[in-house]
Amino acid sequence: MGDTLLALSIPVLVFAAGIYAAGESWWRRRHPAPPSPYTHQAARLAEQAMLVDAERIVDGAYVTLGSLYDGPSAPEAPFPATDAAPGPTTARDRSRQASTPARRN
């Protein structure tokens, strides 16, 4: 009787494994796993998410600091390019700097 039970348990075990495999494949088709982080699709999705975040940050910064980029509100008030006052240049100073020999160490 012990040998008969052992001989019948092998087909039952194979049948149970087949039922389990069929059920698992059915479950995987109905509930797919999330994309692997190592696929090209996952890289594209991450890039799109990063671009959306960057656009949101830039838009927020422009809303906050936009008035700095618009410039002065009164266009008739020009600002000087330098603080130096216009005046005559001395040619003698330029010639003295050009004729001074360079020092040797």
Task: Please explain how this structure is put together.
The chain is mainly alpha-helical and 105 residues long. The chain contains three helices and no strands. The longest helix is centred in the middle third of the chain and has 31 residues, at 40-70. It is rod-shaped and about 100 Å long.
Strand content: under 5%
Query: How would a crystallographer describe the biggest sheet?
Result: none
Radius of gyration: 41 Å
Tally of DSSP β-strands: 0
The arrangement of helices and strands along the chain is HHH
Helix content: 55-70%
Helix run count: 3
Tell me the overall shape: rod-shaped
What quaternary form is this?
single chain
**Low-confidence runs:** none
The class by helix and strand makeup works out as mainly alpha
Keywords:
105 residues; 3 helices
